């Protein structure tokens, strides 16, 4: 059932402490992320009552308060929420609460988690373009292989490939923005990585290639550019700042990118691709088991976004990432576990209602509602869901050892929503069959493990 974004936003606002408690509003692929001056004012019980507020799929309390709304819906609800907060004049109150929010964030974030989240903030805004271009690339490939619409496929290919050809510029822009630099200077420095003229530059006896180092090189270049810019801002007289700071930023960071960062990042990028292919071709079943089994805890901690640079690097290098289909098996294990809970706890109407509400999102790869609404609160089903993910990952990894590679041409979707983005070396039908087999394995093992081991004796007697 489609919910009205304005109604959902209006229902959420008082439950998070009202407009005076909101210090920032943002969103990612599935979550409305709110900075709150006083998190204790949140009425979590009401927010978690999915029947009372059907637009909400789950909540996550972290350095920001995160309300899971699902893909698509989150964009519309966020816009309505921002408008609602602005109408009440909360922006002035938000400024006064910013200090409290920052203090709370620092108290609850370790340096490692904070660094990973900042890295994720660089790449998360790129996901919609990655999805759109990935789907178009898949459709174009099908048309080319079938020999259909030969007059249109070159245009489709250009539309699908243009973003990936210039993704380094967007990474540089977002990096500077995230780390306190001037975004356009970050993009300008990162543009060096993809400029065709670098083919005339020789470093360490070898000629550079446009795109060498990829998104990692762009990230490093923009980080360096931000550091140079900040150094200049603190030392150059104000009268000369507008002229010298951007010039020195582009010059110093650009030369360092050409004569060091591109080469180093190229080596790292090549090592990532080599390592991923070697792991799957030689230890595929074991690697798939480990990756599929550990991904749910990463999602629970909100750290899964830190894998985006690795996925993007693999897509740049070889056209698809073989890791995403394996990681997607974690969601399959979660779905299987939720189905087992639904069957075993047949008298618990509350949790069965939650499962019915969250299961469609889980089938499409949005796992947070089932994690935070079902398996994690129950304890054991979270572990048995991980077992299902491990089994599904091992299934796909086993076929990788046999030479049947399954990859995704873009990142973002998971579950059944990943089918339009699948790519493999054996053709679409075998690739889709292997991925579907992994999903079914994850469902089955997640269900069986949860049904048998997911409940204590006390819990069984109580239910």
Give the CA-CA distance, first to last residue. 30 Å
Strand order of the largest sheet: 1-2-4-3
User: Rough shape?
Assistant: globular
- Report the average pLDDT across residues: 86
Could you give a short account of the major beta sheet? 4 strands, antiparallel
Helix content: 55-70%
Number of DSSP strand runs: 8
- Which structural class matches the secondary elements? alpha+beta
Number of helices: 19
The value of Rg in angstroms is: 24 Å
Low-confidence stretches: 89-101
SSE string: HEEHEEHHHHHHHEEHHHHHHHHEEHH
Q: What is the beta-strand fraction?
A: 5-15%
Architecture overview:
The longest helix is centred in the middle third of the chain and has 64 residues. The protein is α+β, with helices and mostly antiparallel strands. The chain has 19 helices and eight strands. 68% of the residues lie in helices and 6% in strands. Helix 14 packs across helix 16 and helix 14 packs parallel to helix 18.
